Structure prediction request, 95 residues.
Amino acid sequence: MEILLTDVYRIADLARVEIQTDEAQAALEQLSNIFNLIEQMQAVDTAEIEPMSHAQDMKLRLRQDIVSEADRHELFQSIAPQVEAGLYLVPKVIE
Prediction:
């Protein structure tokens, strides 16, 4: 994709950025390099490549879903300031 100096000025105008001629020329070169890199990356055939969820081949260590602690909600609610029907009552913060 070819980008022109008029495109750089248009982008600067849309971004509400004042740009000088030398800055516009530098931006044009940088944008051209970026678009060239994108074209090179799009040219690579990735049809046989499986998508990755992580850069390293990692597997999560899983554990059995087993209850490991006793139910102590009654103990915790016994020291709570206010409890009703098994729920903690808290002061109203937003009116």
Remarks:
- The longest strand covers residues 83-84.
